Amino acid sequence: MKSLTFIFVSLLSGVIAGVILAGVNYFVVEPFIDQAIGIEVDNRIATGEVVDSNELSSYRVWQKEGAFAAGAILGLTYGAILGIVYVLSRKYLPSSDDRKKALVLAAIMCLSLYIVPFIKYPANPPAVGDPETIGLRSSLYTGYQLASALIALGISILMYKLRRISYIKYIIPIFYLGLVASIYAVFPANPDEITAPMDLVNAFRAVTFGTMVMFYLVLGAIFGIMWHKFKPHETTRIAAK
């Protein structure tokens, strides 16, 4: 294993995917956030609260520009996770092509770390929800992600161990769905009542779902292409003199 090449491939692919996500979100997701903030501001004004529009506008400009740095950090994190898991699972993934292997693993990560948690805790615009419950909501979401990831890991190991049983491919998906349903039932619902218009919330959820799925697939594609090109798994050979 070429360690520096492995780190380079994992982190750079993550940064690229994260910046792409931020760029797409800037044009696709941010307009819905602006609408949600506008509704919140109108509600605050209606209650007699004084709102500094210039300060709010400056904050939103800073927030939008900072989204690219946040996207890069998100990409670094998930690129590192993808890289570590890929090294551990590479020989077990289907196909002999690293580009396809990486896409398969990225799709599994997307399912376990995003889609399954999204079903229980769908995304809401930042202005929706009680600021005092942010910590609780973040803890619930992170815990759900961890539980979903552990289920996916356990199912993958079980499937590999029982791969010689002909009918196991029919039983495993049912078992997986049962486990996912169990954590769905155990975890509490979102503690906040949604007060924003549901058409806005649903539109925000739809676009964020699309951009996040895109992020995982782009991450897998870039990672796979770079792995195929630089081959971090190959050991460096020193020619004998």
TrEMBL record:
Record's keyword annotation contains Transmembrane: yes
Domain of life: Archaea
Pfam families reported in the protein's UniProt record: CbtA
Transmembrane feature ranges: 67-89, 101-121, 141-160, 167-187, 207-227
Keywords: Membrane, Transmembrane, Transmembrane helix
Protein name: Putative cobalt transporter subunit, CbtA
